[in-house]
Design a protein that fits this description.
Elements: E1 4-12, E2 23-32, E3 35-43, H1 52-58, H2 62-65, H3 71-82, E4 86-89, H4 92-105, E5 115-117, H5 118-125, H6 134-140, H7 151-169, H8 174-184, H9 192-202, E6 210-213, E7 216-219, H10 249-253, H11 261-275, E8 280-284, H12 290-305, E9 309-313, H13 316-333, E10 340-342, H14 352-359, H15 366-378, H16 399-404, H17 418-427, E11 431-435, H18 436-444, E12 455-458, H19 464-472, E13 474-477, H20 478-488, H21 496-507, H22 512-543, E14 548-549, E15 555-559, H23 567-598, H24 606-632, E16 639-645, E17 654-660, H25 664-670, E18 677-682, H26 692-697, E19 707-710, H27 716-719, E20 720-725, H28 735-753, E21 757-760, H29 764-777, E22 784-787, H30 795-804, E23 808-812, E24 829-832, H31 843-854, H32 859-876, E25 887-891, H33 895-898, H34 902-907, E26 914-917, H35 919-931
Parallel strand pairs: 1-4, 4-5, 8-18, 8-19, 9-11, 9-12, 10-11, 12-18, 20-25, 20-26, 21-23, 21-24, 22-23, 24-25
Antiparallel strand pairs: 1-2, 2-3, 6-7, 13-17, 14-15, 15-16, 16-17
Family: Belongs to the helicase family. DinG subfamily. Type 2 sub-subfamily.
Cofactor: [4Fe-4S] cluster
Protein name: 3'-5' exonuclease DinG
Length: about 950
């Protein structure tokens, strides 16, 4: 086996060598005998201009390469290094492709030897890494990386990364290596020789903390303690009201302590609410430290009273912050021990049975190969099996995770089921940290998903109504229907049903060829009828006169299932009848098939897993058809129904939704009335210094719980400025002019702030038009323009890209108005393009508007305005995240200063200097303020 590795990194003028992009720098590190023995680095003259954004990214200028050798002059030395070696690179397809293209153009033969991609290897050998960019891995593994995006530095770092990974590979258990060996044939990297050598080595090793179960090597877990019927009260602890005081417990035990008066007030209020069995509304501005402030009395109450407390968050970011930062800190500083665990819905947890089953099936895609390899290594390290730990492409929404996530797993795997362990651990915990989706699924399910509890803290509580409505609502779309049908696998030869047919014919033949062919034919007809149903729904949407356009360009149509009288709707209902009749007949046949096989298949076998998954798919399909019936053939007057289609999308791509118009009564009866104490907290709960708006929509007006409002301790009057242009065109007067002026102002401001700008839109269409205008003006690529919906990647990836570039402008819509944290100098300017009023044709808002009108109220004052003010407060809060942050907010909407309701927006934010003046004057003021 070759033991020479040449690690190469290139910097280039772009991404496409066939379109003329050229190499501008090559770095190489030669590894032999597991050590870096030699390095090589050179600039390469590209004979073309280096784009500005490449210069910003790499630090390499046209002057640096002006006297550099050509690639043709460099090639012989490079080829000599590569003789009898592995070509190693961080993203081999990129670097090897560039090198080979340049070699061919220079008259040399391309490199055809073995290659190793350290991105690919890192993805499965480091499944919990925060990211797979070289700089991210270097920081995570504590490898010095002083000059990112310089080829010589990147090559050295990649070399040490490969040495780390190669070492880890040789420590893996035999079973893990054996499965990786089978997967390696589908990978880009030539790893087979290393894996086989590692398999010979690992037989001699004693594997610590690893157990072997049904052919898998997994991390050993301590047995779950016997279930206790009740918590045991712990008695008094040494906790006092002075815990957060300047010379209190926390200050003496935590070096990072900063006295904040607000924390004392929060802790006292939460403690009173828990002890007095009352609810509490708590608005706490950014920087108070409310998480720690409510956790201390929560833990204290739980230990003293022996009562479990649930803490619910809307985002996984806050959930992770609580479990990784706040709770470990409290475990160090509190004078008594306590247990806090995370509990999520079962879809967040790995099912080992389904994973093992997928391992024994030919992988469908390259992403599935990598997913399987990642999980093989991850199960040696994880205690939880929670998808949030593992960096799978696509995360919990990926097609791969759909195949391996937990469901009602078979009993033979019960002891190794991660979800079961999480539930059991939650039963013995003092504090359970969960999410709003599971909290309200539990409420909708009659309190059967979470261990019993009477006390809960709802953080990020401004999402309460939205999550409750979604939990109580229904939705289905064509993609989901086809996904469920695919799980059944009746028509596909490799599907579960067809694989079970082979089992039946081998072990216990009964149904016969004719019966199986009938199932296949009937299923083909069922899929056709389902296609027809969604085609008709799509057609109905486009032909209906009351159609509206959504923010992202879809056609949206409100409908009344039992009130639609058109022939088109009658055709839809007839189509639904055909689908349901066909499905009911087939479901009965599938149940008979399952019942027959159950008596012949061994417990714990792969065949039993197949049968279990098929039966689960039948159940899911039955539930899906039930939802279809409710959405098309039945009607609840307290619900709003609508469908959405994409004009340019597939002819059957229709989405159906139903949501309750008002959840206040349901919340009051099924949530607040059932709990002793619910603490509702957020940075945005009040409108005009009143909690009335949220109290009404949550059903709390009759209860009138105590409320506490605390402003942010940050010095906004010193560190921030708010500007509203007086001479910008209004959208109502001329939308095109408004977009032109918005783009111009963004570009001019970015020149002052050197990027570091977040621009919040309320309309994706407006974002898109502004982005393309900016692209036209920024011909020299002075700025990295990152736009939501126009660049691929998640919000997190966009945030990382924004912070990576020196001069970046981030354009975002809904997802960026809250829940993002860009501290310090990375963000110095926030532009809010328009006041965030929800589109009046949004179906749920429209239905609630009609309800308020029927009751004689004012929809604008009671719904639209409060909702917009709370949204505005969330957006404004993106700028100042820490006490030393400094920056400006610009609102390009004159209504803030000229309308009668503008004061509500101004009063909703901390006191700070506000200027309403022409745009040119604002630009001068921004420059003066940021330079001061």
């Amino acid at each position: 086996m070759k033991n020479k590795f040449v690690v190469i990194d290139t910097e280039t003028t772009g991404n496409a060598p066939k379109k003329g992009d050229k190499i501008i720098q090559i770095g190489a590190a030669v590894i032999e005998n597991n050590k870096v023995q030699q390095t090589f680095s050179t600039f390469v003259r590209p004979y073309q201009h280096i784009p500005i954004f490449i210069q910003q990214l790499t630090g390499i200028t046209d002057e640096d390469v002006q006297q550099a050798p050509s690639f043709k002059e460099t090639a012989p030395q490079l080829l000599e290094l590569l003789q009898d070696a592995y070509f190693v690179a961080h993203n081999v397809p990129f670097d090897l492709h560039f090198i080979n293209q340049e070699l061919i153009q220079a008259g040399f033969s391309p490199f055809h030897g073995p290659a190793i991609d350290t991105v690919e290897c890192a993805r499965f050998l480091y499944p919990t890494a925060p990211g797979y960019q070289l700089s991210q891995l270097a920081e995570w593994l504590h490898i010095d990386h002083d000059r990112p995006h310089q080829a010589d530095s990147d090559a050295i770092v990649t070399a040490y990364l490969w040495l780390n990974m190669k070492k880890k590979l040789y420590t893996l258990p035999y079973e893990t290596l054996d499965e990786l060996r089978k997967l390696a044939v589908h990978m880009d990297s030539n790893l087979s020789a290393f894996i086989q050598e590692a398999m010979l080595t690992t037989k001699k090793q004693i594997e610590k903390d690893i157990e072997h179960y049904k052919g898998l090597a997994i991390k050993k877990h301590e047995p779950i303690p016997p279930k206790q019927t009740h918590f045991q009260a712990q008695g008094e602890t040494t906790f006092t009201e002075a815990f957060f005081s300047a010379d209190g417990t926390l200050s003496g035990r935590w070096a990072g302590f900063e006295y904040r008066q607000g924390q004392e007030k929060i802790a006292d209020a939460v403690s009173d609410a828990l002890e007095n069995r009352s609810h509490l509304l708590l608005e706490a501005g950014t920087g108070i430290g409310k998480s720690l402030a409510y956790l201390v009395p929560v833990v204290q109450f739980s230990k003293q009273q022996g009562r479990r407390v649930v803490v619910s968050t809307n985002t996984t970011n806050l959930q992770a912050q609580l479990m990784q930062n706040d709770i470990p800190l409290l475990k160090k500083v509190l004078p008594h021990e306590f247990e806090a665990v995370t509990l999520k819905g079962k879809q967040h947890y790995l099912c080992l049975r389904k994973f093992r089953q997928l391992l024994h099936t030919a992988p469908a895609t390259y992403e599935e190969v990598l997913g399987l390899a990642q999980v093989l290594v991850w199960i040696l390290e994880t205690d939880t099996g929670d998808v949030e730990e593992i960096n799978i492409a696509g995360g919990s929404n990926s097609a791969f995770w759909e195949k391996v996530r937990s469901d009602e797993s078979s009993l033979s795997w019960y002891a190794k089921n991660y979800y079961y362990r999480a539930v059991e651990n939650a039963k013995h915990a003092d504090v359970i940290v969960t999410n709003h989706a599971l909290l309200f699924a539990d409420v909708s399910n009659g309190n059967g998903l979470l261990p019993s509890y009477k006390h809960v803290v709802v953080d990020e509580a401004h999402h309460l109504e939205e999550v409750a409505a979604k939990s109580l609502g229904m939705q289905v779309d064509y993609f989901h229907v086809t996904q469920v049908f695919h799980k059944l696998g009746v028509a596909e030869e490799s599907g579960d049903f067809q694989r079970l047919r082979t089992v039946e014919e081998t072990m216990c033949p009964y149904f016969g060829e004719g019966w199986h062919q009938q199932r296949k034919d009937a299923f083909t007809l069922l899929k056709y009828e389902a296609d027809e149903l969604f085609r008709m729904l799509h057609h109905y949407s486009l032909k209906t006169v009351n159609q509206k356009e959504t923010d992202i360009g879809k056609v949206s149509v409100r409908y009344r299932p039992q009130k639609e009288l058109s022939p088109l709707w009658e055709a839809v209902k007839e189509s639904l009848k055909r689908v349901l009749l066909l499905f009911e007949e087939e479901a009965q046949a599938w149940h008979r098939f399952v019942h027959h096989l159950q008596d012949y298949i061994d417990t714990g076998s792969l065949e039993q897993g197949l049968l279990h998954d098929f039966h689960a798919a039948v159940t899911e399909a039955e539930e899906m058809c039930d939802v279809l019936f409710h959405l098309i053939a039945e009607e609840d007057p307290n619900y709003v129904y609508w469908m959405e289609v994409d004009k340019k999308g597939a002819a059957n791509a229709a989405y159906l939704y139903a949501r309750p118009i008002d959840v206040s009564e349901k919340l009051a009866d099924s949530f607040f009335a059932q709990k002793d104490s619910v603490i509702l907290t957020s940075a945005t709960l009040t409108v005009d210094d009143s909690f009335s708006y949220v109290m009404k929509k949550w059903g709390l007006l009759d209860v009138a719980p105590p409320a506490l409002q605390l402003s942010s301790p940050f010095a906004y009057e010193k560190n921030a400025r708010l500007f509203v242009p007086s001479d910008i065109t209004t959208v109502k007067d001329n939308e095109q002019d408004f977009i032109q002026e918005t783009a111009a102002f963004i570009y001019q401001t970015a020149s002052i702030t050197e990027g570091k700008m977040l621009v919040l839109f309320t309309s994706f269409d407006m974002l898109k038009k502004t982005y393309y205008q900016l692209k036209q003006w920024d011909e020299a690529s002075d700025f990295a323009l990152i736009a939501q919906g126009l660049k691929t990647g998640s919000r997190l990836k966009m945030m990382k890209s924004f912070q990576q570039y020196n001069k970046a402008i981030l354009l975002g819509t809904n997802a960026f108005w809250e829940g993002i944290d860009i501290p310090g100098e990375d963000l110095s300017c926030l532009i809010i393009v328009r006041l965030p009023f929800a589109p009046p044709n949004e179906p749920v808002l429209q239905a609630r508007t009609e309800q308020v009108k029927r009751e004689g109220g004012s929809p604008f004052k009671e719904l639209s305005l409060p909702q917009a003010v709370l949204r505005f407060k969330q957006g404004f809060g993106r700028l100042i995240r820490h006490k030393r942050d400094k920056g400006v907010v610009v609102v390009l909407d004159k209504r803030m200063m000229t309308s009668s309701y503008g004061r509500y927006f101004l009063q909703s934010i901390p006191a700070l200097p506000v200027a309403h003046k022409p745009m040119d004057d604002i630009l001068n003021d921004i420059a003066d303020f940021l330079d001061s």
